[in-house]
Amino acid sequence: FQAISSLATRTEQGTHEKRLLNMLLDMYNVLERPVANESEPLEVKFGLTLQQIIDVVSFVLHLSY
Questions:
Q1: Sign of the Cα pseudo-torsion (19, 20, 23, 28, in order)
Q2: Cα–Cα distance for residue pair 20/34, rounded to 1 Å
Q3: Which domain holds residue 27?
Q4: Does 1 reside within a domain?
Q5: DSSP string spanning the chain?
Q6: Helix residue spans in the chain (DSSP H)
Q7: Total of domains in the chain
Q8: pTM of the entire predicted model
Q9: 6: number of CA atoms within 13 Å, CB side?
Q10: What angle do the packed helices 15-25 and 2-9 form, to 10 degrees?
Q11: C-alpha dihedral sign at 20, 32, 48, 7
């Protein structure tokens, strides 16, 4: 949460975006878990998407049969 809040305070945004961010993170507690039963494990999934290809290095292999 500290990384998010420090990042949010160092960015340039409009008044509406700043108000929305403050409203969403106002009651945020890092110690709370989003589960009904605290003894149950929490499964977290995340993905990664390639945004941009900067350079492609190609190696051509000559195979002889």
A1: negative
A2: 21
A3: 1-35
A4: yes
A5: -HHHHHHHHTS---HHHHHHHHHHHTT--TT--S-SSTTS-------------------------
A6: 2-9, 15-25
A7: 1
A8: 0.32
A9: 3
A10: 160
A11: positive
Mean pLDDT of all residues in the chain?
78
Spatial contact of 31 and 39, defined as CB atoms under 8 Å apart: no
User: pLDDT tens digit string along 16-36?
Assistant: 998 998 998 898 887 887 788
Does residue 6 lie in a domain region?
A: yes
The answer as to whether 42 is a domain residue is: no
Tokens in use for 53? Answer: 């290809």
Amino acid at 56: V
26 domain-assigned = yes
Residues in the chain, overall count: 65
Report residue 12 as tokens. 């340039």
Tokens coding 65: 């049969």
Q: Which residue has the tokens 């106002």?
A: 26
